[in-house]
Protein: Hippurate hydrolase
Amino acid sequence: MPTIDRIDAFADELTAIRRDLHMHPEIGFEEVRTSNMVAEKLDEWGIEVHRGLGGTGVVGVLKGKGNSGRRIGLRADMDALPMEEHTNLPWRSTIPGRFHGCGHDGHTTMLLGTARYLAETRNFDGTVHFIFQPAEEGLGGARAMIKDGLFQKFPCDELYGLHNAPDLAHGEVAILPGPAMAGADFFDITISGYGAHGAMPERSKDPVVIAMTLGQALQTIVSRNVDPLHSAVLSITQIHSGSAYNVIPGEARLAGTVRAFSDDIRKLVRERMRALAAGIAAAFDVEISVDIRDIFSVLVNQQEQSDVVATVARGVVGDANVKLREQPKMGSEDFADMLQTIPGAYFWIGHDGDVPVHNPGYVLDDKILPIGASMFARIIETRLPAGASHV
Structure:
């Protein structure tokens, strides 16, 4: 597999960095140790470092040869998940309730590997912005960096990101032009009823019964309101109410997520959720509040940058290992918010192991670290070829 020899030569160092990050996971907006390590490595390699964007975000700036004026951003996420790790690896998490169960430690390491290689070779004409983003896991890290002026301070003509993929074979690279990952909302619904003794339900306005009724009604939105030729998901993932066997509580709460590949469908689902809640509130003579929050935009890969990824991947992993996805993923990714502003592409790299991300037994395969670093590096050398400003 023709990864870059120079990157292969320090693959062991990349593995050491990745495992160190894995042992010390930090969740969104708490990535202090992680961002310190990133900043120190970039500074060590002579890369200009900027800190504090979006809280704990870090941006490295590296200029190559020539004066083409072109600028490309490469992005990696840094945060872990608030969950336990159930592996017996020597480098497993040392922090209870914190686990790099999505492989962001690997993404950060890959981008560091790219940064080191490009700093040592500078075989490109233009400027690279290495974007290390906090809080990807539903906390709005991308939006926080953008709000802090990411693309005003570090303008980009195009942008690239990646993710590890246990559902692909080792070394496969997948790309999907167009809508590639769903937009997502999170919701909280509070039913304010009236409590009573469990033996005297007639004296209550039972929020538990109302919650079950509303939960069933919400499932009709996808089955009866959304065009069946379009995809949508409405999942209730939390139900909270009550504290005793013989007490009808006064309040019940539902929470969950909505996913879709169209903002129009997301708007439809939100409107129907509110309408159903209002109707059921009237029917049962209670108050129901509905809080729906736009968390992730639809991730849309541009055709031009998707073609770049596919072309570069053929050189890095070979034609047989380049996969054009036929279906988008219903999962979400807040790199989508950056792609709403800057044209770019987001791709996946497969690795050994079949345990999915966000599973307590998930394990990242360190052998893909040079592949990810080589992909990013070749994208830069392809899109910012040395000598381009003199052609």
